[in-house]
Amino acid sequence: MRSLCFWGFCNMKTRGLHIFLTACVFMCVISCHAPVNVLRNEVSFKHIKEEASLNGSGYCIVLVDDDYDIQYYKSKIIDKNEGNPCLWNFVNVDRPENYWYKWLLGTWKSPFTIIFDNDGQIENIVFGTSEYACKSIESAISSRGKGIIYKNFGFARNSDIPDCIENADEFIYNHLQLISDTACTYCEKYLKADSLAHISGYPFSSYLKLCYGRHIFSKNSIAKMACGFIDKYIGATYSKITYSSLIQRVSEDFLTENSQTLIDTKVRIAKKHYRIGDEVPITVTITNNGEDDISIEKIETTCSCIKMVPENRNYRRIIRPHETINYLFSMELESSGKVYHEIYFYTNSPAPLATAAVKVFFEQ
User: What are 52-75's pLDDT values in tens digits?
Assistant: First the structure.
């Protein structure tokens, strides 16, 4: 009787241990396969694409600027989609190496979310984090082919992609494929970029032609193509606030020696407490780094709220080699929060467009 009781007690302990171990294994399996969102920062397109492919998951590239609060985006969108595992990569498009994302999408605004499916195809491109933007992003990462509500919300309204492009997702994806393709020769890439450029005359397509063409054609030929590019787009209807940096990049990469920056611009704004309606003084310092005189042919701004001081004055037009000149402006403060404008100096040099970025944050 004693041995029977002892065996029963031991058997209960063994079964209990078995149940406990089984539960632990089950919980481990569940935790190992639990859907998770993986966050990345500043990972190149090629590498984020490869990582997502290895994981067999979709991925999102979120384009932000220097001032954007990534934690706000995380709490607003990512944390609310924990059940839909995805690879998220935040890219700061205010960094020169990431400008090309702005040129590709045709926008200087942020945040933009580009959503890719499990096969690496673009499913959705969304601007902002409004209620409808959040629903559009959520439906794209959760549906996986079941339909997207508010597809491409805010994209057309905030992008310079031409209206003649019927499928913007495919158009942008074709550029990304071309950029990340390591199997094609430069000649093949040039021909593909030329084909994309012929579809709409899109600036970024033409820029890729220059990038691949420099490995095929002579330096003089590429310089002529670069001049043609600048002549075409410097006065085009495309938003200059988006493409001014592209025009400058073409000048530096294809028209000046050793990618030298011929003209340096610096912006100074007096730090003080401003109110809506105040006049904000702006000083733009221009330095000629070249060995020849530079003539300032024209000055433009992206906002009528910025004027030269004194208005309509005869500003200094010739900047001699290694000389620095200050140009004074005044900006009427029309709203609080983030303010971004640009001032353009058109010149007769190989760098025909110099841009001064006026970027400040005013609290009410």
Answer: 888 888 899 999 998 899 999 999
pLDDT digits (tens, 9 = 90+) for 250-301: 998 998 765 567 889 999 998 777 888 888 999 999 999 988 999 999 999 9
- Residue 217 is which amino acid? F
Start-to-end CA distance of the chain, whole Å, equals 87
d(C-alpha 142, C-alpha 123), whole Å: 11
Type of residue numbered 279: E
Distance CA 354, CA 346 (A): 7
From 353, 357, 351, select the one nearest 260 (Cα to Cα): 351
Residue tagged 């105040």 (tokens): 278
3-state SS string for the chain: CHHHHHHHHHHHHHHHHHHHHHHHHHHHHHHHHCCCCEEEECCCHHHHHHHHHHHCCCEEEEEECCCCCHHHHHHHHHHHHCCCCCEEEEEECCCHHHHHHHHHHCCCCCCEEEEECCCCCEEEEEECCCHHHHHHHHHHHHHCCCCCCCCCCCCHHHCCCCCCCCCHHHHHHHHHHHHHCCCCCHHHHHHHHHHHHHHHCCHHHHHHHHHHHCCCCCHHHHHHHHHHHHHHHCCCCCCHHHHHHHHHHHHHHHCCHHHCCCEEEEEEECCCCCCCCCEEEEEEEEEECCCCCEEEEEEEECCCCEEECCCCCCCCCEECCCCEEEEEEEEECCCCEEEEEEEEEEECCCCCEEEEEEEEEECC
Give the number of other CB atoms < 10 A from CB of residue 358.
20
CA distance 59 to 176: 14
Write phi, then psi, for 90 (nearest 5 degrees).
-90, 130
Task: Report the C-alpha gap between 133 and 126 in whole angstroms.
Answer: 6
Using a 10 angstrom Cβ sphere, with 0-12 exposed, 13-18 middle and 19 or more buried, the burial of residue 308 is middle
* Both tokens assigned to 89: 């990569």
Question: Is the per-residue pLDDT at 12 higher than 50?
Answer: no
